[in-house]
Amino acid sequence: MLTFPTRYLFALQARRKLTCHTITTLSYTDDFTLWPTYFSGPEQRILLTAALRKLDRMDSRAARQQRKAYRLNTTCGSSLQHVFLPDAYYEFEEGHYDGVIHNFREMHLTCWPQDVNGLLPILTRLHSLCPTPKTQTHLLHLASQGYIRPHIDNIDASGSWILGVSLGGERILRMEGPTEDHGNFDIVLPSGSVYLQKNAMRFTFKHSILKGESKDTCQRLSIMIRDVPSPC
């Protein structure tokens, strides 16, 4: 089994490759593929704007009013991180019912906003990566210090694959095999990346999103698309 320093070095090496845009697709195993620069900056902004709009509707009226007042009185920058408001303006939950996710907002998405210009072709590109057509979508917004503990997906509650879009702060996805023979590895997930995790990598390897290691860690939003499990 790889030791932590070696795994972390692997993550840093991947970071340098992604920054240079020298790799467009990385296949770590037959069951895990990463597209590190799948979405451009403008495409990321459109996706993030649409996803936050849906999530924001779930917060209380007081929270929505506070966000509106903040936007009216604040000049925001042009970077993708400025699409997010400060953590205090969102109603993040401290812990999930199963103890896996911490400092987050989430929702099951039934439809996207119809009035976000340029969204439809982006979603078409995204869904072109799905192995099967029948899907369900989940939005997960992590606070700056939010994280996901190691877990294995419930095979009875989901299908065989999951497609994940990362928007906002860069994080590390850690994959931990069930035995030393399987090995462990870390994968850097930059904003705009998409990964496909399926079969054994979903139901054999524990996976987690590590907590940010510095005070400058940013918020992160994931769009998770799963295949719908077959009826019994």
From TrEMBL:
GO BP: any one term: DNA damage response
A single cellular component GO annotation: mitochondrial matrix
Alphabetized InterPro entries for the sequence: AlkB-like (IPR027450), AlkB-like_sf (IPR037151), ALKBH7-like (IPR032870)
Residue ranges occupied by any Alpha-ketoglutarate-dependent dioxygenase AlkB-like domain in the UniProt entry: 33-225
Classification via Pfam families: 2OG-FeII_Oxy_2
Domain of life: Eukaryota
One example GO MF annotation: 2-oxoglutarate-dependent dioxygenase activity
Gene3D superfamilies: Alpha-ketoglutarate-dependent dioxygenase AlkB-like (2.60.120.590)
Protein name (database record): Alpha-ketoglutarate-dependent dioxygenase AlkB-like domain-containing protein
Species of origin: Collybia nuda
